[in-house]
Amino acid sequence: MLKRFLLPLAVVAMLLAVWWIAVEYTKSVIFPTPLQVVRATIQLVQDGTLWDHIGASLFRVAAGFLLAVVVGVPLGLLMGWVEGAFATFNPIVQMLRPISPIAWIPIAILWFGVGDVSPIFLIFLASLFPLIVQTTVGVHTIDREYLRAAENFGVSRYKLFRQVVIPAVLPQVIVGMRVSLGVAWLVVVAAEMIALRSGLGYLIIDSRNAGNRYDLVVAAMVIIGLTGLLLDGFMRGLERLKSVQWRYAR
Amino acid sequence: MRAKIVVEGVRKSYRTENGPLEVVGGIDLSVGDGEFVAIVGPSGCGKTTLLSIMAGLDRADQGHVTIDGKIHNGPSPKGILISQRGSVFPWLTVQQNLMFGLNGEHSHNQAVADHYAALVGLKGFERGYAHELSGGMLKRVELARALAVKPEILYMDEPLSALDALTSLRMRVELRRILAEERHTCLLITHDVEEAIHMADRVIVLSARPATIQAAFDVPFTHPRDLSHPALVTLKASILREFGL
Asked: What is the ipTM for the molecules in this complex?
């Protein structure tokens, strides 16, 4: 109880206190106090725009992320299992991987305009590479003992994949999904800052442009952080599945 | 007794940084149908490699292995290897592990799995996962999974070495009881001479690397065996003498 809730809450409370004291002490007129941020959040809840912004961002993340799972996991499995596929695709994957999704923004706008497709494309790109890499590593690190046993029992290729390779890789895929989703959430905000009319990233830029509403800026930042925490919590829930627990120490 | 497995002139080397390392140095061995042969030898002498070759999971550089008179050069469910490190799939339940090698209908497979789970004393643990079981129970899963496919040959690579003395002894007794019910040809690798004498019809002593057959001892006693019987004590002493002890 103490470790799970009290200590993390104490850290948050201390940061809030430092923030509040610093704002009062410097008598800043632009930077908001925590109370002003809370009031701004309540205002966003009351006029109903908060849920629209969160919903828009979540939709883009979900679309881009799921697309990346659909493409990245099978590609990772292929690259891990077939040596030729690894030799073929790994160089291009490693070349594209370090390019920040932010660098793709101009190209995304050129190709897809300023609708929902651009941020979805950027999120797809950002989520794709961690998934490919983790899945490939997962296949490469399957204990040979398991493959030998499967070979010994003479099972079909289909059964080998369904009952050995995929479950053996699943824990690594879940790690990849956690990393990917974190990156996706990071990128959606950046992508929305550029062009769109909705989303949490848009809210931040719009609030700043529309009369230095830094209370709204910080409110949006806090909401981004909290949503990220919830998303990660959801992904960690997957790690509690009985069939993947063998891989995690705790 | 008809020969089930014939090993002829099998040699195997591994490439290392310091040139080839010969692990198996010319083995000729014949195992009868239904016979239980234990192979003992100093650690690192190539026992595991020899067993892998016999099971078709590794290739010999020279010589060959025939089973029922046919050259054997790949793994098959006719002979199941129980490896030293264990290979119970941790992502499957005990029951799913036991059903892994079965090809019949689902309900039939389930019945077979439950039968073998009960046979090795795992009743009530069918829905458990590997990380919820003790080392001794994992070995039982491994054994039951092998038995479930009704293999003609069981290749066992130090299956009991990781267990505590009491569990190991209990497993020996149970294994003999099961073998009395289901007649398998068995090969057992062990570093425990007592275990070999307790279980096997014949004990083969391998030399240090590269492994060759140094001596062979028949163990012509009925089961259950009393290890304190003078004849078995004498036999144990003669085998240990082969190791210079």
From this structure: 0.85
Distance (Å, rounded) from C-alpha A200 to C-alpha A24? 28
Residues, chain A, total?
250
Q: How many Å lie between the alpha carbon of B128 and the closest alpha carbon of chain A?
A: 10
Per-residue pLDDT tens for A163-189? 999 999 999 999 999 999 999 998 888
Q: Does the beta carbon of B83 lie under 8 angstroms from any beta carbon of chain A? A: yes
Name the phi and psi angles at B27, rounded to 5. -115, 130
> pLDDT tens across A80-111, in order?
999 999 999 999 999 999 998 889 988 998 99
- For A159, the closest chain B residue by CA position comes to B100
pLDDT, tens digit, for every residue of B166-179?
888 888 888 888 88
Q: Which of B218, B238, B193 is nearest to B32 (CA)?
A: B218
Q: Which residues in chain A touch residue B141, judged by CB atoms under 8 angstroms apart?
A: none
Whether residue B205 contacts residue B214, with contact meaning beta carbons closer than 8 Å, is answered with yes
Residue of B nearest to A241 (CA): B91
* Domain range A32-247, CATH architecture: Orthogonal Bundle (1.10)
Q: What is the CA radius of gyration of chain B?
A: 18
- Collect all residues with Cβ–Cβ distance below 8 Å to A165 and sequence separation of at least 6: A77, A81, A139, A142
For A250, the closest chain B residue by CA position comes to: B131
A chain contacts of residue B130, beta-carbon cutoff 8 Å? 246
User: Residue A195's pLDDT is what?
Assistant: 62
For B91, the closest of A151, A153, A244 (CB atoms) is: A244
The minimal CB distance from B149 to the residues A153, A164, A170 is found for: A153
